[in-house]
Amino acid sequence: MYEILIYSSSFVVEQIMIHYKYMNTPDYKKATDTALMLLKSFEIRGPVIPVDEIAQREGIAIQYFRPDHDKKLEKVSGFFDPDSKTIYVNSADTPTRQLFTIAHELGHFELQHNPSQFDVLYRFATPIDKEPVEQEANCFAANLLVPEEMLAKIMKKYNLTANDFQTLADLFGVSAEVMKYRLRWILNANNF
Amino acid sequence: MDTERKQLLDAFRDRPDILVDLVSADNETKKAELESKREQTAALLQEKKEINRMRASWSRWLLICIVSIVSFDFLLIALLGLNIWTFEDQRLILAFIIEGLIKITGLAYIVVNYLFDKNEKNIFHE
Lengths: 192, 126
What we know:
The complex is a heterodimer of chains A (192) and B (126).
Chain A: H1 2-23, H2 28-41, H3 51-57, E1 61-65, H4 71-74, E2 76-81, E3 86-90, H5 95-110, E4 121-122, H6 132-145, H7 148-157, H8 165-172, H9 176-189
Parallel strand pairs in A: 1-3
Antiparallel strand pairs in A: 2-3, 2-4
Helix pairs in contact in A: 2-6, 5-6, 8-9
Chain B: H1 3-14, E1 19-20, H2 25-81, H3 91-115, H4 122-125
């Protein structure tokens, strides 16, 4: 009797742990595949990826806001309002940051994230960035703005290496930080 | 978790003047800047690619020159050593060999100084 109880309780605990692990593990493959499918459907073959046009063609409005010295607004890069299907973007940000914000928020929409799970995207790193949904949205944005295949083709064409991240960032219309992160990710994934 | 979002949306409702039109001149200019930077970088890379192609061609010819000079010097020394060729004045041989060395040094100087641009990276990182 005790054995059955112990076995069943351990089974339940195990299932809860699997569920918890699943819920807390970002699905990078899904994020990557969704971004690539989107690029394919819009027949985009070269940078800079027009993420704002993609978002609008997906039925999402983009609205810019001025922070106007408001401390709360100044901290925010942007956010997605699922009710009005609108991406709000900070107009004071650099164009590269704005593209990333749109791509990140578009990720929440395309990956069908539960609105209660994601919030606003801050200009500086916060603990919220470590949430699985935020990591998935970041992965989606990285794959949308800098697709691996396109990056490899351009690096080969111009004989560039990972050290030329600033040049590559200029070509793709992203910040040097995003390009460095992307190159590191790709090189690690390919065991270089 | 979405309280921050709701607070911001409320702020926008209270102050609609902070919302900027999508096609405002400012954002269009920013997009144009991004595109112009991309075009500029692509043009610089194309130029770099062309220069590298020309450098490859020059390097091949320089290599042919160096190999020819070394081969000639080698042949000269071999012919002299085997007594097939003889010169009455031995200084002539010395002059030939020194001249060959100077030619190689000159070519090496050209290769180092002109084929490899020391400031190459700064073109893109300015």
